[in-house]
Amino acid sequence: MSTNQRNGGALTKQKPAGQRELTVVSNGDINVPLSPADLKSSTAEKLNRSAAAQIVNGFALLCICVLAFCIRLFSVVKYESVIHEFDPYFNYRVTGFLTREGFYNLWNWFDEHTWYPLGRVIGGTIYPGLMWTAGALYNLLHLLNLPIHVQEVCVFLAPLFSAFCALSAYLFVKEIRGQGAGLMAAAFTAIVPSYISRSVAGSFDNEGVAIFALVFVFYLYVKTLNTGSLAWATASAIAYLYMVMSWGGYSFIINLLPIHCLACIFTGRLSYRLYVAYAPLIVMGTIGAAMIPVVGFNAVLMSEHFGAFLAFGVLHGALFIQYVKSVLPVKAYQRAKTLVLTGGVAIIGVLLALVTGYVMASPTFGWTGRSLSLLDPTYASKYIPIIASVSEHQPPAWPSYFTDIHILVLLVPAGLAACFRPLSDASLFLILYGVTAVYFSGVMVRLMLVLAPAACCLGGVAAHEFLLALTRAVRTPEPVSAAVADGSASLLDTPATPSPAPKGKGKGKSSALKAEKARSKGSGGMFDFLDASGKGRIPRDVAWIALGATLLGLIFYIGHCVWVSAEMYSAPSIVLQTRDPNGGVHVFDDFREAYGWLRFNTDPNCKVASWWDYGYQTTAMANRTVLVDNNTWNNTHIATVGRAMASPEKKAWQIYRDLDTEYVLVVFGGFIGYPSDDINKFLWMVRIGGGVFPDIKEKDYLGAGSYRVDDQAPPALLNCLMYKLSYYRFAEASTMVTGRYGFDRVRNTIIGKTDISLQYFEEVFTSEHWMVRIYRVLDKPNRETKLKNPRRPKAARRTTSSSRPRSASGAPPR
Length: 814
Description:
By secondary structure, the chain is an alpha+beta fold. About 55% of the residues lie in helices and about 5% in strands.
C-alpha cells in the first residue's frame, strides 16, 4: 500500500520496493510524473535561476546607489564645491575644530565667538553624530594617504549617506514584502525630491545622515520582530543611539515604536518576538540617549518619552497575564486575572497621578516647544513666534506634496491597502509609520523629510504588487478551453515557478518569507482578485496598456526628480543664479563678497550684529563674533536684536553700544529683486522683540491695516533702524535698474521715505547688487552737515536756534 505525503508544493508517491519511484508535481487539477533525472535537472535549473536572480538583484542595488549619489551632484557641477544654507556652516565649523583638536576637546569647547557676551558651550548643545561621522571619515581617508580637505568630506557626505539610505529602504521593505517591493522602494528613495532637498552635495546638515539612521533603525526593529533574535535587538539599540546622536527627530522613533507595540497587544499579536524587539531597544536606547549631553536626563524626564515607558509597562503586564494563563487552571486564572487587573489599574492610576502632577508643574507640560507645535499647529504662532518665524516650520501647501513626492501621492494609499493583505506585525508597523508621517508632514514643511521614506516604502509595495499582477496577466495566454475557463490550466500555461520554500521549520522564520510564500501560492496579495486563472482576469490588451501607462508614469517620476534636483534644490543660499529671457545666466555672489570684506577689513575681535538667520554664516565665513545665530537658544537675546532693529536710530544706537557692537549687517533685496530680505522678515523681528519688550507693538508698524513700505507706512516703520539701513541712498540708485525713483522691486512699490540720513551709523560696505549692506556703529553721532546760508538774516538764524528743543542741562542738542 502506498502513502501520499505533502512536502512544499510537490506530492511524493511512495511505491513498494522493486518498482520505479516517480515524483508527481501537482499543478491545479493535473498531476505530471517526473523521473529522478528530470527532478534533478529541474532542481539545478531552479538553483541557476536563483543565482542569476541574486546577481541581477545586486547589480540593480549597485545602480540605485550610484544613481542616489550622482543625482545630488548638480550643485557641484553647476556652481562649485561649497557648503549650502545656514546651519551647515556651523556644522562645518565644528567639524573643522574636531579634526584639528580631537574628539575629546569638542565636548569641552566653549565658543566665545557666538552669542556675545554670553558665549555657547558647543559640546553640550549639539547633536554630534554628523560631525563625528565626517571626522571619522576624514581621519580614515588621511589614514589611507588620501589628503582630502575637510570641506570636501562635508560636501559629499550627504550624497554618500543617501545611497546608504536607499539600501536601508531595500532591506526594510524586503523584510516586509520581499525583494521585488524592496527594490522598488530603494529606487524611489534614491531620487525622491523631498529627501534630495536635504541631501544634495553641500547640504551638510543633520538630516543628511539622520534619515539613513531613521530607516535603518526601522529595518533592524522589523528584522528583530520577524526573527526574535536578541542580536538583532542589540543592533537596533545601537542604531537608535546613532540616531539620537544625529538629530532631534529621534523623538519620532521613540513615539512610533510604542504605538506599534500597543497596537500589537490590543489586536492579539502579542508574542515573545515583540518583546525581544521592543523591550531591549527601550532600555538600552534610553540609557544610551542619556549619555548624549544635549539629551541627558531629558530621556527620562520629558513627556516625549513617557509613551515608550507606558507601552513598556503594558507589554510586561500583558506577558505576565499570558504566563499566568498558561500555568493556572481556568477558574484560578480568572481569579488571578481579576486580581492582577485590579492591582495593575491601581498602580497605573497612582503612576498617572504622579506623572500628571509632574507634567502640570511645567508651563509646557513637559514638552518642548517644537513638539507642542506638532500636537497643536497653532501653538507656535500664539506663544513662540521665533519658531513660527522659520519658513520650514509652516504647514505645507498642497502642491508641495506633488513637488516633493510626485507619483507617490497616488501610490501611498494603494501601498497602505496592500499592507493589509496579508497583515503581519511588520506590515502593521509600515502602516503606522505611513499614517503618522502623513500627519506630521501636514503640520510642518520640514517633516516632509520624514514622510519621504515612508512614501517610498509604501509606494514600492504598491508598485510591485501592481506590476506583478500586470506581468502575470501579460505572460498568461488567453483561455482556450472550458477547463481553463473553470480555473484549471496546463503545465505550459503556468507562470514562472515560484522559489522553493526553505528547508526546515526554524523558529526564526521570517514573516516576510511567509508573505512571499503566500503570494507565490496566489493568495494574500493586493491584486489577487485579478488572478489570471480567475473570473476577474485582466485581458492581455488591457494589461499591456496599464503596464505601458505605469512605466510612463515612472519615467515621468524620474524626469521630475532630475529636474527638481538640478533646478530647485541644488542652488546654495549664498550663491544665487537667475536667467534672462535670452537664456543667459547671471550669478549673484554678494554674500561671500560681504563676508570676505568683513574678514579682511575689520578687526578680528569686532562684534557684528545681524538678524539670527545669518549668524552661522558670519561666524564661519567672516570669522567674526556675532550677537545671535541660528541656534536660537536664548529668546531674550534675539528679542534684544529685534528691538534694536525696530527702534528709532538713536535708541538702536544705544542698544548696540551697550552690547559692544561695532558693525550691523542687513540683507536687502529691493534693488535686485531678492525676496528673502530683512524687510520681509521685519514683522517677525517686531513680534519676537514685542514678546519680551512691551514697548514694541506690532500695530505701530502696520499702515492701513497691513504691512507696507510706501507712502501709507506708519511713522514707526519709516523711522526705525531697519528701514533706514535698508533704504539709505536707495532712491537714487534704484533709477539705474528700474528707471523709477525709489521703486522697490520686491514690494513692487515706491518707498514712503526717500530722503534718509544717518546720524549714528556710517555705511562702510554695500555689495555689488545691494543685497548685503554693512554699517559701522559710530562712537559719537555725526554732526549736522548742512552749511549755513550766508544770505539768511542773523535774526532768522537766532530765532531758529532758540526754537530748538533743549536737553535737561539747558543746552541745545547737537
